[in-house]
Amino acid sequence: MRPLAGLLSGLIFGFGLVLSGMTDRDKVLGFLDVFGNWQPALLLVMGSAVMVTLVGFSLVRRQQRPLFAPSFHFPVKRAIDGRLLGGAALFGIGWGIYGFCPGPAVTALFYGDAGTYYFFAAMIAGMWIANRVESRKKNV
Questions:
Q1: Tens digit of pLDDT for each residue in 79-99?
Q2: How many Cα atoms occupy the beta-carbon half-sphere of 131 within 13 Å?
Q3: Is 128 exposed, middle or buried, given 0-12, 13-18 or 19+ CB atoms closer than 10 A?
Q4: Using CB atoms within 10 A of its CB, is residue 120 exposed (0-12), middle (13-18) or buried (19+)?
Q5: What does the buried/exposed string (b/e) look like for 2-13 if buried means 16 or more CB atoms within 10 Å of the residue's CB?
């Protein structure tokens, strides 16, 4: 059941991204251009996502355990450190340059745009490098 639930969640998430316009690079870049030709339409998408998350987490926290796992895995780290800030900066730079973050990039692969394939390959390479660096730090 767990893989099926993951697949269904991913399909719903991808459908929501397409429906909301988050897979339209021009729309996303227009939203990020607050000092130019700003297009605020995605503000409603982001606001809606925040509201759904707040409601969802309040419902989830009332449950004894998740449906398909023995326990919940909530974040426990609260410190704002260089690793967090560096990762956020890289995420923002990638989003600002190309107009995608990871979820919409995966969904947009189906559009067949070569630039999206390059972005996706660079994103995967960055994740792999970050994983290698972290594992080497732990082994030292």
A1: 999 988 988 998 888 888 888
A2: 6
A3: exposed
A4: middle
A5: eeeeeeeeeeee
